[in-house]
Design goal:
Elements lengths: L3 H6 L3 H18 L11 E2 L13 E7 L4 H15 L5 E7 L4 H15 L3 H13 L8 H10 L4 H8 L2 H17 L6 E4 L3 E4 L7 H19 L4
Parallel strand pairs: 2-3
Antiparallel strand pairs: 1-5, 2-4, 4-5
C-alpha cells in the first residue's frame, strides 16, 4: 500500500501513518530481511565526516520545500526523530542545487534563528503543497513567518544575518559532498544514502532501511563477540 493513500482520503493521516509505520517496523524486526548495497541503499563513494560525537550515529535528512515526496516524508521523519534516543542523532539539511533551493534553505535556517524550526518547517511544506503558495519571494516568506507569530523585526534580523548566510553556504557544500541528486534522501552516518527506488518504493521501506543501517553500524561497533 502506498502511504499517499492516507493523504488522499484525509482520514486521520498522521495517526494512520504512525500506526502503519509501527506495525510494518515491528514486522520487519520479526522477519529477517536482506538489504543489499546498490539496491536498497548506496554506499557513498567518499564518506563525509559527521557533525556528531564519534560514539553517536548521525541520520541526516536532505529535503527541499518544493519536493512533494519530502512533504509527505516530513511527518514520518518527525515521528522517527521524536523517538531518537541514546546513540542516535537526527539532523535536517536543505538540499541546494539552484537559487530557489537556496532561498528555501534560508527559510529553514531563519526558522532556527527565531526558535521556530519545527513550526515553520511544517508550515512551509503546507504553504507550498496545500495552500498554493510557492514561497518564491522574500515577501511571501516574510508573511509566512508573521502568520506564525514571528515578529517582522525578528524575521529581518534572522533573514539577513551572517549566521544564516553561512549555514546556507554550508548546506550547499554538504549537498555536493553527499553527491545527492534525488530527494528525499537520508544519509546514515556519512556513509550510506537511502532514497526512493524500485526496492524502496515508499516512506515505510525507507524508514526500515534506515533502521537496518543503524543496526548494522551498531553491530560494527560491538565488542562483545
Amino acid at each position: 500500500m502506498q502511504l499517499n493513500l492516507f493523504y488522499k482520503h484525509k482520514i486521520a493521516p498522521k495517526l494512520a501513518l504512525v500506526f502503519l509505520l509501527a506495525s510494518v517496523f515491528h514486522y520487519s524486526q520479526a522477519q529477517p530481511r536482506e538489504f543489499i548495497e546498490g539496491v536498497h541503499y548506496q554506499a557513498l563513494a567518499n564518506p563525509v565526516p559527521t557533525q556528531t560525537d564519534a560514539d553517536r550515529i548521525e541520520v541526516r535528512e536532505l529535503f527541499w520545500y518544493g519536493c512533494p515526496e519530502c512533504a509527505t516524508l516530513e511527518p514520518v521523519m518527525s515521528d522517527w526523530g521524536e523517538g531518537v534516543r541514546g546513540d542516535l542523532v537526527l539532523h535536517r539539511t536543505p538540499a541546494i542545487w539552484n537559487d530557489i533551493m537556496a532561498l528555501h534553505a534560508r527559510i529553514y535556517y531563519s526558522a532556527i534563528a527565531v526558535n521556530a524550526e519545527d513550526l515553520i518547517h511544517r508550515e512551509a511544506f503546507k504553504a507550498i503543497h496545500q495552500n498554493n503558495n510557492p514561497l518564491r519571494t522574500e515577501s511571501q516568506i516574510r508573511e509566512l513567518f508573521l502568520a506564525n507569530n514571528v515578529t517582522a523585526e525578528a524575521f529581518e534580523k534572522a533573514w539577513n544575518s551572517g549566521e544564516v548566510n553561512s549555514q546556507v553556504e554550508n548546506a550547499r557544500l554538504r549537498t555536493a559532498e553527499y553527491g545527492v541528486d534525488k530527494l528525499p534522501s537520508v544519509i546514515v552516518n556519512g556513509r550510506f544514502e537511502v532514497t526512493h527506488n524500485k526496492a524502496i518504493f515508499n516512506h515505510i521501506e525507507l524508514n526500515i532501511a534506515v533502521n537496518m543501517l543503524v543496526r548494522r553500524l551498531r553491530d560494527e561497533r560491538r565488542t562483545d563477540f
